[in-house]
Amino acid sequence: MNIPILRLAIRSLFGRARAILLFAIPLLLVALAVLLRATAGDAGTNPEDAPLVLVRTFGIGIVVPVVALIATTTLINSEFDDGSIIYLLTKPVSRLSIVASKALVVLVCTLVFAALPMTLAALLMIGTDADLWLGALLGGIVSSVAYAGIFTTLATLLNRSLVGCLIYWLVWESTLTSFISPAAWLSARAWGSSVLHAVADVGQKAHPPVWFGLVAAALCLVGGVVVAGRKLSHTTISDV
């Protein structure tokens, strides 16, 4: 890791207009949780119904990847687009260190603006019942780790990285894995949902196995940083 690059990445992340979305998206999630709790009345809410759907479908399925995508494209894609990456390429800094530092900021950003709001949303809806809050937290962490690695790789390898990341999320994660069961083994959303189902008492079977999701998410992050670092190490100023 490189402390100056970490500071530069954080400033870059919150110095752009799109940073507003980083605050708006989790606020929307929490607002929906409050609305759901308010409309439930004295009868309360069944953790197997709307709360689970909100955490799994909207939280892990939408909030986590969107926050990760905003952070990744801001820190990597935008620097290639506006040429600011040249500043880093001219410095005697390890390319792997550059990518690892940016990936760390992406991961922390996703945890703060996605995983933690999911946890808060679960607590607002049903409190500590069924351990939905814990499942939301751990499932959000796993999917955040996976998306940070996947999007970092795509943002570095592809010329149209924003389009590539959107296609991956919309076509693979949101569509194909929903209709083709075996595809869930290669889905960041499924890995997070598996942990959620295993931890929370919501009557859902963990698929794929939790151990597989944990290993796969870690491999995505580490492998993604290594692949992106190697790609950047072969990038010259003339290529930017």
From TrEMBL:
Keywords: Membrane, Transmembrane, Transmembrane helix
Keyword Transmembrane helix: yes
Pfam short name (any one): ABC2_membrane_4
Membrane-crossing residue ranges in chain numbering: 53-76, 104-126, 132-154, 166-188, 208-228
Keyword Ligase: no
Entry-linked PANTHER family: INTEGRAL MEMBRANE PROTEIN-RELATED, MEMBRANE PROTEIN
Protein name per Swiss-Prot or TrEMBL: ABC-2 type transport system permease protein
Native species: Calidifontibacter indicus
